[in-house]
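A common beginner's mistake is to predict each chain separately and then try to dock the pieces by hand. The better habit, illustrated here, is to supply every component at once so that their relative placement is modeled jointly.
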Amino acid sequence: MTAARGDRWTRAPLWLALAFLLLFVLAPLGVLAVETVWSADGLTLDAWRALADDTNALTQLWATLRLGVAATTLSLLLGGAHAWLTIGRDLPLGRFLVPLGVAPLVVPPIFVAMGFADLAEVRGFWPCAMLLGICHAPFVAVLAARGLRATDGRAYEAALLLRGRGRAELWLLRSILPELLAGCLLAFLFTVADHGVPEFLTVKGKTWHTYAEGIFSRWNRRAVGTTFAELESPIVAALPFLAGLGCLLWAALRLRASAPDRGVVRPLPRRPLGTWRWPALLLPLTYLGAGIGVPLLVLTRWVLGSAQRREPMGLEYARQSYQKAIDQGLPDLVHSLWLALGVAAVIVLLAIPLARRSARRSPWLDLLTALPATMPAILLGMGLVRTFHANPGLGWTGWDFYAGWGFAVCGYAARFLPFAALTLASQVRRLPVAAEEAGRFVPRHAVHRALRLHVQPLLPAAWSAFVLSFVLSLRELDLAVMLPAANATAVRRLANAVHFQHEDWSGVIALMLLSLAILVPLLPTLLAGRKLSALS
Amino acid sequence: MSLAVTVTDLEQQKGAFHLGPVSLSVKPGSRTAIVGPSGSGKTSLLRCIAGLERPDRGAIRIGERAVAGAGVHVEPVDRGVGLVFQDGALWPHLTAVQHLTFAAPKLSRADALQLLERAGLAAQADKKPGRMSGGEAQRLGLLRALAQHPQVLLLDEPLRSVDVHQRDGLVLLVRTLCDERDVTSILVTHDRDEALALADELAVMRDGQLVEQGAAVTLLEQPRTAFTAAFLRGAACLQTSALGGGRVRTPFGEFDAPAAAPAANELRLVLFPGDAEAHDGVDGPEARILARLPGEHGMRWRCAVDDQIVVAKAPANPTHHNGTTRLRLTGSPRLLPWQAR
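With all components supplied together, the output reads:
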């Protein structure tokens, strides 16, 4: 077989991935945009004027920005401090705490909200900002830790000798600034795009709404046929929001790309904390306690009967809870598991060719791939629904793609593809181009060469991407609300159940869900002895 | 069987850099080094020969076969060449044995082990590149390139990341394996010693152009350009100015320009080490003494004249030690054009 024909085979996955982006990212957005411009109640200057004059929309926008800034500040403090203390200081148990920085990511934000809501009165803006800040701190913790690990300890020591301790710390801060800012921007994007937690915390006695909530409520009113004169389409309301977030994402990508490849480095020296050594442990413990401990504790209490005011709480009640959960919620849990596994597998298969292409030849592909990360999941869901609800092009087959699991898998994959593609692209950039060029002299089939020399070195990063996609899919609530097949996932069922006070068996389902989310990342450690820190 | 490599009027534009037109002829079985300073285009030329880059114009033939030219581009794997990259460019996830067995499908593990043993890498057979020294990695890179039995071996600065004490061993290995396999080799380097150790023919490049090509001995002893003399032998090349009537002025006085010389301003007075001597008189240009170097042929002084470094013979009984001296020529002046036209 000639080299050219072999190349066609190696390009097939890229074409498949591009087709996926076209169908499940660009087409849904395009459909929303087209409907906005050309539908009967399409985009007009009046609509924009109405948006500018709509005090409700401006209030939502302002509330969202405040929420984003407040939550991101907390993420920066918690995540940044966790990374700095565990990597740069002699914190007790530091080596074990480093990989745990990513751990709160496995807990869906709605679980954290449910946990805190069970312990205290957490209603309103500031509790919501605090909870979202805790939930999204892992983005900052992981990226800051990566930056600190990539900083050359010799350069830090040189700064320490020349400029003293304070200036050396400032130098360290400057050297990890790209990673730190990228982490903050990701935390901000996730916070402002979150629909579930603000909705949950303000469901009774609403006093404020976020933009994502506003867009969803417009969609609902539109869907039930209510005349909607002031704003014609959700995307009109979403456009300024999207534009702002797009700029932020572009900035985050540029910052990550501008972080220098520091090559072979000596690890940072662990500086002594002195008398603060043990008190400083409180910070990571508070972070991990709030992010994982409280939700787990509260869910366990629910299982034991606390929510149903059972006195005394006990294992017998827990057994009943498990029985009820298995009877009523197990199918949802199984659905969630298969959906998350399917999504993670699809994402990895699509992300590898996209990452290779964007890292080696087409950097603009990064931005295209990352597009879904800039928008609230609820908006992507609307686009997907509008595009596929009539099964375009499939009518003659009788196949209801829209209602099936395949559609849910594709929708989730579109949502989480950016994170896997960016992770893998970053890994591809670290691999020497010359080593790939050396492969062009090897007399083997192009597919064999690609698998051995291009894909195999990416497997560790692909596993991390798989785990990340799996965990994010398992905890996704916003798309679960929108996509028909995903309505039957455990997270969606839990969100409903919590509103209707079925906390006992929902606690069991939540714990099982968390167990899955924790078990999958741990598998390589348990089976192959791979270091847990590789995940972070 | 070794093959000839012929490059004809090759040109390539890469950003602001223009390579060529370059024409180069490499005889079958010869060992040729393309030398020149960084940014002279030698690596681009090598990559075009390897097939990793496409020239904009010109043609490349390997043996009788056109591999690049108008409407022709033969993939690297089909050119019958092997390439030893700078710093090895090894595959980080494969062991040394896997490198060889993957690169050469017909090679068995036993054959690969035998090859590794010959190169002194038996102990590294199951190690990945991350656990090898620079010298070991470069040896493996060489074996990988040769494992496919190429007819032409291309080497891109193969000694750059190798410790000084390991260089001789690697040079010997390259020459032995190339001789045994009757391979034409083309080396690219900016290091004169590396070029002379691995090649018998030299092609000197500067600013994307081929300055001159010939046997290494000839180019060392009788360079046709001042640039070659400076690059290969560290000669000082002093500016001259035209006086008219076929005369040129140099810091050492006025001389007749050689016949068929280019414009006089293009000429340089070329001084090899020892072509000038320091003296206590008042004739000749003043030079600042930078260092005193003992050597087999007596004491030499490194002196600065204008912006050039001249290695001059020291006077037998120097009387001045205030840091400056006067220089004079020990033989007839060597006036050469800076670059061939």
